[in-house]
């Protein structure tokens, strides 16, 4: 049985060099095989690579940026506001994608397109405006140097409407900082893998969308019944109210308790002053409202305001766990107001909070250890918890001033310039590690090492599971858990929905096969959908191995092997290289890749269509 | 007893479930742009998420400007006479809240009918930002908030059967006695 609905069967391709926008048809076979979101992204990036004989400069006009919601984006079911941004990442030089919540993807779908791809380079700083089936490229050089938040306001004013949704880059994107992000709806970010730098390299300041089309749905009443069941399950969950109250900030306390909170650039994994920066503190003194992505009842986003002290007036959508951990404990900052200010600064500059926090932490430790001299730091000393120096450094990275020019190129360039930083900075394949300490659980190490975009937890977040139930896991169970996560979690990105109802409230994943059925009219079991997701993992691996990745790159940062956390429940714990290599071999075997991590020749043929 | 949809913007998360369920109920489609309620978001100064929906005004300006008398109240709810409406959209302009909506695919303006008295948006709102309350109790939340935020409010912690509790009280200054 094939799909009957759920898609517009349209692909909008924009070439910024020529200014042409072209609507292309998509076949049902393509939609069925790649589903949407990251599935479309990986396939189109692969096709583009082949067309360019695998010579694609991430910041060159030939790099194709694919923005794809999924078939479930924007329809009535829990947390359906997700959309994926995929391309060759400037941070890793490999496949990269990042997903964004909010309403941008919903609006993009409502323009009547299943996927938007952007190639070329505009002659002047421009804005791409997709108003239903009309696409225009508006040169707006006056937006140069404007922050993400300002840009959104200026564009709405210029177009004379506030009902558009705007995805924009800030100064960091314009300056092609390799961890620049894309910001939409005033605080939802496609944060990782440097998608903002790609927009900057294309002279594309913002993408503006406005659409009014019905989202194709095969059986609306069936969908509503199923979705109501899911919403009800979530509402009755014992942690539901806690999620509405604290959102992702509740993880700070958990991470600290379990010893996985990044502290002083991962020197430690518990933070003495955690109670000054946790969810309860936020709730008592800073939170002024809730914020949710499209159709989400959990509303894990917070709105915070600093009401007194020197950061008075700072308003942010957020923070969430990663931002708070990476810009707080990881830099030794125990002042929650300062963390809010730093997150707001990153939002305005359009810079990924995870990479920014990670690199800043490495700079502080590098200086502490004497690897970086005071002249490397342009004469400005920087130490743990020094808010002012840290905020200055963040601004310098975005502006590419002084040392900021090197830091802006990400961890690879930093290691090249100061080889001893290799032992300080935590990165895999050039992407800085996110805020979960893998020394507490080797499966998380394997997840970071084998993630297709670098050291990010989005593909597999096994740390909590291993801590809770995995003390006696066999190697096989560890590998299976990582692979299952790497298959299921990307499926959510393909469908265009958020994974948190499943991750945090344990919403049964079987719901998603029904959602898929009611939206597309195609019966597919969860296993069949997982199989498609698994294929995409093979495809991204194929992209990466064709670009030179192999076993040697599936490694972990030096600290994981050599520097145990100084205090907390995991004191003294490091991972063993021998255990890890054993796991890695088993992982390759289970995936059907060879000893060097290369997928077999037959895999490539699967994606020839 | 007539009831009203009341919006408590401080509790709105901006998730737009109200928009979706309204469109599904009235048009049978997943399209938030076909709803009679929309969440308006402003950021960062001021930060506000506020659903805009018909207030069921007692003196309805929409009906006053309607040239064909197609907006009339029945059972306490404003109803659009679909036969006689000429889609001039004068009501859209006239509504002081902008709570009447227009969609290209629809011939008629989109106005809240309170789902006949059992509004879907209220039923599905996950944060309690939309409520259906009797008219006579309007304003009670505001009154309660006012009392709670009484400026001189002090608090002390105490233990009751081993459980930590907080009591609030207002302290009267000596000079005021």
Description of the molecule:
The complex is a heterodimer of chains A (609) and B (177). Chain A has 609 residues and is an alpha+beta fold. Chain A contains 25 helices and 17 strands. In chain A, the strands form four sheets. Chain A has a six-stranded mixed sheet with strand order 2-1-6-3-4-5, with helices on both faces. A six-stranded mixed sheet of chain A has the order 8-7-12-9-10-11. A three-stranded antiparallel sheet of chain A has the order 13-14-15. In chain A, α2 (38-51) packs parallel to α22 (526-546) and α17 packs across α19. The model of chain A has no long low-confidence stretch (mean pLDDT 96). Chain B has one domain (3-135): Alpha-Beta Plaits (2-Layer Sandwich), CATH 3.30.70. Chain B has helices spanning 17-27, 61-65, 90-94, 120-124, 140-148; strands at residues 3-7, 38-42, 48-52, 71-74, 77-80, 130-134, 153-160, 163-170. In chain B, the strands form four sheets. A two-stranded antiparallel ribbon of chain B has the order 1-6. A two-stranded antiparallel ribbon of chain B has the order 2-3. In chain B, β2 (38-42) and β3 form a beta hairpin. Chain B is elongated, with a radius of gyration of 21 Å. Chain B starts with a strand and ends in a 7-residue tail after the last strand. The model of chain B has no long low-confidence stretch (mean pLDDT 90). Classes of the chains: A alpha+beta (609), B alpha+beta (177). The A-B interface holds A 74-76, 103, 106, 110, 149, 162, 185-187, 211-215, 217, 220-221, 223-224, 231, 235, 244, 288-297, 299, 301, 303, 305, 315-317 and B 10-17, 20-21, 24, 28-34, 40-41, 43-45, 47, 49, 103-105, 124, 126-127.
